[in-house]
Design a protein that fits this description.
13 strands, D-Maltodextrin-Binding Protein, domain 2, three-stranded parallel beta sheet, six-stranded mixed beta sheet
Length: 269
């Protein structure tokens, strides 16, 4: 009996030591996890995000001839959100196609470039809340005989590559019997219509409105906006969720403070 009691006591002592050791490991694990989270948070605070944008999409992003720097609605909103949320970033104005490619390839953390939020794009990008709503309009050279989509049969319509305007043109071209041609920038697309190499173009209402009113482009808008959707700040799907969260928080904050309205008013909205 004494031997049995001694054996049971020994087993109990070993089990007790194992439990204590397990508790110690659990504590160490929790401590390690907490330290890891703190380290990750500090790393995030010190991170400089690489953000891409368009280079010819006034008034959202365009080169200021006086300062030789890119300005516009997107540039100002990004700067205001970054200041509000303590986001460090560097901006690269490389063009719309280049921006999408850089984000998808992981060369950029995000893009802000008057990018319309669509279901198709949601398959490869995660978007912020919409920060501006816009739609597409039909545009012709001043004095053109074309008065609407019904007059486009047999005509050439210019579009900008990889845009919702281009997608809309493709969706209705069979209905109205026109052909499409594509350009990398809005400026070259407008020039094609002005010079007559294209009969019309389809463009975002706010962008072509700015070009006509502020830049004196010899074009006329001949339709009401259609296909109205929101613009969004975008990251590669599944990447940088913290950046989307910060952008949304910052956007809400600058709207509440009135800074957002000031930015839009600066560009005539």
């Amino acid at each position: 009996m004494k031997k049995v009691l001694a054996l049971l006591l020994a087993v109990a002592m070993v089990a007790s030591m194992a439990v204590l050791a397990g508790c110690g490991n659990s504590g160490d694990s929790k401590s390690s996890s907490a330290e890891s989270s703190k380290t990750e948070a500090k790393a995030d605070e010190g991170k400089t995000y690489v953000i891409y944008s368009d280079n010819a999409f006034a008034p959202f992003e365009f080169l200021d001839d006086k300062t030789n720097e890119y300005i516009g609605v997107d540039m100002d909103i990004m700067a205001a959100v970054a200041e509000d949320q303590g986001i460090k970033y560097e901006m690269h104005n490389e063009g719309f196609d280049a921006s999408m490619g850089a984000v998808q390839a992981g060369q950029a953390d995000a893009m802000i470039a008057g990018m319309t939020i669509t279901d198709e794009r949601k398959e490869t990008f995660d978007f912020s809340d919409a920060y501006f709503d816009d739609g597409q309009v039909l545009v012709v050279k001043k004095g053109s005989d074309i008065k609407g989509f019904e007059d486009l049969k047999g005509k050439m319509v210019a579009c900008k590559t990889s845009t919702v305007s281009g997608e809309y043109a493709e969706s209705v071209k069979d209905e109205y019997g026109f052909e499409t041609s594509y350009f990398e920038g809005s400026d070259t697309m407008y020039q094609a219509v002005v010079t007559g190499s294209a009969d019309a173009c389809i463009e975002d209402f706010s962008v072509i409105g700015w070009a006509i009113e502020s830049e004196g482009v010899e074009l006329s808008i001949i339709s009401e906006p259609v296909n109205v959707k929101g613009y969004g700040f975008a990251v590669k799907k599944g990447a940088n969720p913290e950046l989307i969260e910060k952008f949304n928080a910052g956007l809400a904050s600058i709207k509440k403070s009135g800074k957002y309205k000031e930015i839009l008013a600066k560009y005539g909205y």
